[in-house]
């Protein structure tokens, strides 16, 4: 959900990140959130990233994750649009056939 919000903000030309979290940063350490843990789906500060809980996890810089998820979202959106167009064509054909 956080990555989706970041992608939405980027698509609207807003600043990167979630504003409320940017101001506060990490709630535990009050450090800036710099990386994204793929296993937990969470933004992390440098201190949390080095903790035992995340040390073995795959983490990526936030801008890279945004690009990655934005690409996935765009691909899925295109698939949904294509499916919608097929359904609308089918509906129209059925309506014509019924008339």
TrEMBL record:
Pfam families: zf-B_box. GO terms for molecular function: ligase activity; zinc ion binding. Keywords: Ligase, Metal-binding, Zinc, Zinc-finger. SUPFAM superfamilies: B-box zinc-binding domain. Residues 21-62 form the B box-type domain. InterPro entries: TRIM/RBCC, Znf_B-box. PANTHER family: E3 UBIQUITIN-PROTEIN LIGASE TRIM (PTHR24103). This is TRI41 ligase. It comes from Mohoua ochrocephala. The gene is Trim41_1.
């Amino acid at each position: 959900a956080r990555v989706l919000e970041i992608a939405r903000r980027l698509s609207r030309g807003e600043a990167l990140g979630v504003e409320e979290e940017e101001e506060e940063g990490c709630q535990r350490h009050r450090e800036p959130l710099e990386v994204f843990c793929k296993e937990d789906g969470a933004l992390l500060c440098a201190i949390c990233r080095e903790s035992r809980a995340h040390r073995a996890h795959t983490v990526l810089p936030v801008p890279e994750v945004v690009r990655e998820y934005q690409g996935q979202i765009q691909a899925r959106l295109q698939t949904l649009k294509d499916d919608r167009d097929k359904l609308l064509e089918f509906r129209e054909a059925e309506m014509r056939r019924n008339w």
